[in-house]
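Input record (Table S2, row 407):
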Amino acid sequence: MVVGGGSAGVAAAVGAARAGCRTRLIEKYAFLGGAATASSVSIYCGFFDQNRRRVVDGVGGSVLRRLQERGVYREGSFSWSGNTFVLLDTETTKTVLDEETHAAGVDIRLHSTVVGASRERGWLREIEVSDAAGRHRVAARAFVDASGDGALCALAGAGVRVAPAGERQTSTLASRYGGVVPGADLSREGVRVAVNAYNRHSGRSLPHTQGVLARLPVTGEVLALLADEHVDTLDAAALTGAEINGRRKARAYLDAFRAYLSGWENAYLLCTGPQLGIREARRLRAREEVRGADVLAARKRPDESIARCGWPVEDRRVPGVARYVPIEGKGWYDIPYGAICSDDLDNLWAAGRLTGSDDDAFASLRVMGTAFATGHAAGVAAALYARGAKHDRALIRAELLRQGALL
Ligand SMILES: Cc1cc2nc3c(=O)[nH]c(=O)nc-3n(C[C@H](O)[C@H](O)[C@H](O)COP(=O)(O)OP(=O)(O)OC[C@H]3O[C@@H](n4cnc5c(N)ncnc54)[C@H](O)[C@@H]3O)c2cc1C
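Output record (flavin-adenine dinucleotide complex):
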């Protein structure tokens, strides 16, 4: 049973199904993709290290190949850092994830939200799912929480880490703009000058940030990730305020860019969100934690590794500021098996941005390429467990390698 259909959940479900298990994937929205589609975070980071070497394959690699087959695969990289990423078209991404899960035989339930869980001693027994027909209880032998926010862990009473709201990675409402002519200014300096001019003339105080403006494939629309803020993402009232405030800012940025940024004169707002982009909520209290020191030292763990991460520390705890710290040699580090295992429920794994980590390691491994890798491992581990091989690292690694993962 996999809860959440983002990068980690898709990889977990496909990995489990390919390992021979009957697998169900529960997703609260009408489509898969998680932040990539539901929050317009249309940039897969973490498939490459800063030397531009591939560090993630397996299910994630298969998703990239499907984008290539559809002719919408577009890589980009920052020359100053070597960070390499893949730009996404939202609708193609939804379709490709449908195809990937369908081909593996995953039983998908969209419009379905996990609202309860029951445990018995050190085991998770069943979950409660709410959908249009009502509430249902569903039992399984093994569970993966890939909900990003740690919904299943919290409902099951499994240990989680939650930083105080003001110390978490910030949240950002992404917005997408159309009508931005080819060659229009998308530079940070351009944004800074335009926002300052707008603030001077309007008397407002729109923040100018170290955010991103990126041109997306297929539609040519421009993605903006600009207005970071601290939000208690586990509080519905605070989330409501942040969504409304984010939409107001998306319109103010449009006004600023139309007036003061070259090529934006006829731009319009295509879409916000749909939901606030949440970088951090809960994290798993895991059997083992990835630490910032492991990240910076590019620590290798030959027998324990279930995934690689090549994305540097990208710390966004201060609104509008991105603090990057490279991995030694601009390479990658190994994520150990214990980081995806719940420390108190034997048949529960968590992956993606729930992976057990301290604050600095979290700022690195939370990206979506790495979420595909940790999710893939969690799905394979859960499938082998359900079939009787409990926490056998050698078998899990062998199955991941058989499925094309890079270890
Ligand atoms: C503003 C912002 C910018 C970012 N920029 C980048 C970037 O450029 N590149 C990059 O790679 N990463 C980026 N990240 C980080 C990345 O998006 C996340 O860390 C990543 O999406 C985590 O993947 P996930 O699968 O763990 O969770 P998510 O993508 O959050 O997916 C979780 C899924 O679980 C579902 N779900 C939640 N609760 C339930 C429930 N109770 N029942 C059923 N389903 C449920 C959700 O609907 C969602 O589909 C950014 C994040 C933010 C917020």
